[in-house]
Design brief:
By secondary structure, the chain is an alpha/beta fold. It contains 20 helices and 19 strands. The mean pLDDT is 85.
């Protein structure tokens, strides 16, 4: 390329001027990467890419390497206004009935995000996509005041149109309907699908619209949350998007195994708060509908919602998981579609296993991304050496994002156990302090385990050299995948 430029202009000074200017640009970006004091692995990955592949690396950095950390999503004043709209007064942050470890988790979440602990919630665990959609549609059909829907993917297929029909019908009854979808996650969906809802009076908006000129500043930061609030009394959160494959597995998988939660009780206010922050962040007026109006039930689950994203000062969900793993005494059961842990989380899992905690990691035998499947497998050897039990799910696509610790702590939400979810995506998880929910999720995990192949260390060492090389090469890009 440089030779062509030199020949075309036939001027040595111009040729070398371009070379110097371009080199200075690449080196200055390397300096920016290093000065931001990011995760050393990530800084090294970007520095390597920029030096070895200066043209392609520069383009990749413009689109995927920039940071928006510490960007404020909502003003302090609006935060206070949202909290004041909650129908149920927030209880104490550290109830004595929780274990000492869980009281630490509660206070950590409070320090990270100001997350409130809501007690007395009824939670239904849903692992079947058809059941989840049936219940969601029933709740939308019963809505009287408002419906707030937020998903990474809302597809223009039979499932997406079924939900669109229910939302349009609700809007026709006078229900206020607002929808957020991620513009990249739903990039393949035609504008006609969205216009049909908009024409029916639904307020529907993409998060970080992919358009020029802000295209390069937005494409890497995706809103991966799956949040629903209906009349402030019923909510949903979990891993399932709105698309046919979350029900039937699609063309690639015989089944789609996921985990979603339906909640009634005060914790619905946390879902409303999360939705309202994102809605306001996109330049819309602040939402102040009442939420959390269902009174707490005796013996119900205590819940906190923790959100995280590229604007956060800390890696909020990662910190919560790290603390829980460090506090584990009996077991850590983890389900994730992609296993690309940060260095600290990998070491925490290894330390727990070496301390004779029963650590089990379940990931799909084959995921919906070949690159991420290979990257995930590159961590298996290190896990096996520490005594971590690895299970490869062979019953379809395992998309569940769930972690269970000991007998009374669990988390379910949109966060994958990977770099992208922890650092680049806007995510949301419920952290649940309940023996009953822990037991239910543990039963689901053990049921899934029957459909898994447990990886043995001797077997893993004997896999073909080509597999090992492929996994190791992809591993180099793990911090920026």
């Amino acid at each position: 390329m440089l030779e062509l430029i030199k020949e075309y202009f036939n001027a040595g000074w111009l040729y070398w001027g371009i070379v110097v200017a371009y080199s200075a640009t690449v080196l200055s970006i390397v300096g920016v990467v290093l000065s931001e004091n990011r995760n050393p692995l990530k800084s090294l990955a970007w520095t390597t890419v920029l030096i070895l592949f200066p043209v392609g690396g520069l383009i990749l950095y413009i689109f995927f390497g920039r940071s928006i950390k510490n960007t404020r999503m909502i003003s302090r004043r609006n935060k206070r206004r949202l909290r004041s709209a909650e129908a149920i007064p927030a209880p104490t942050d550290s109830p004595s009935r929780l274990s000492a470890e869980n009281r630490q988790h509660v206070m950590l979440a409070r320090s990270l995000t100001g997350s409130v602990l809501y007690e007395g919630n009824h939670i239904d665990v849903i692992t079947d996509g058809r059941e989840k959609m049936d219940r969601l549609i029933d709740d939308i059909n019963a809505a009287k005041k408002y419906v707030h829907i937020q998903y990474y993917i809302i597809d223009n297929d039979s499932t997406g149109n079924r939900m669109a029909d229910a939302l349009i019908a609700a809007a026709g009854r006078g229900v206020r309907v607002r929808v957020i979808y991620d513009d990249i996650g739903s990039l393949h969906v035609s504008g006609k699908f969205h216009r049909r809802m908009r024409d029916a009076g639904i307020e529907i908006q993409p998060f970080f619209r992919v358009a020029f000129p802000p295209f390069a500043t937005r494409i890497n930061w995706r809103n991966h949350r799956k949040v629903t609030v209906i009349d402030g009394s019923t909510g949903y959160i979990g891993g399932m998007n709105i698309a046919d494959r979350y029900i039937d597995g699609g063309k690639k998988f015989k089944r789609w195994r996921d985990t979603h939660l339906r909640v009634t009780g005060p914790a619905v206010a946390a879902l409303q708060y999360s939705f309202a922050v994102d809605w306001n962040f996109m330049g819309n007026p602040l939402l102040e509908e009442e939420a959390g109006s269902v009174p707490p039930t005796s013996g119900g689950a205590a819940v906190q919602m923790v959100t995280s994203g590229p604007t956060s000062r800390w890696s909020n969900v990662a910190f919560m998981m790290l603390k829980a793993i460090a506090n584990a005494k009996k077991r850590v059961y983890l389900q994730t579609p992609y296993f690309l842990p940060t260095e600290s989380l990998l070491r925490a899992l290894q330390a727990a296993a070496l301390s004779r905690v029963d650590v089990r990691v379940m990931m799909p035998m084959k995921s919906d991304s070949a690159i991420l499947t290979n990257a995930s497998r590159s961590y298996i050897q290190e896990c096996l050496r520490a005594g971590i039990k690895i299970y490869l799910y062979d019953g379809g696509m395992l998309h569940s994002k769930m972690m269970i610790v000991d007998d009374d702590f669990s988390t379910v939400g949109s966060t994958n156990f990977d770099f992208r979810s922890f650092e680049h995506n806007f995510e949301g998880n419920f952290f649940i302090y309940s023996r009953e929910i822990n037991a239910r999720l543990r039963t689901d995990f053990l049921d899934d385990q029957r459909l898994c192949h447990r990886v043995k260390a001797s077997e893993w060492r004997r896999r073909p050299l080509a597999y090992k090389c492929r996994e190791s090469i992809v591993r180099l890009l793990a911090p920026i995948l």
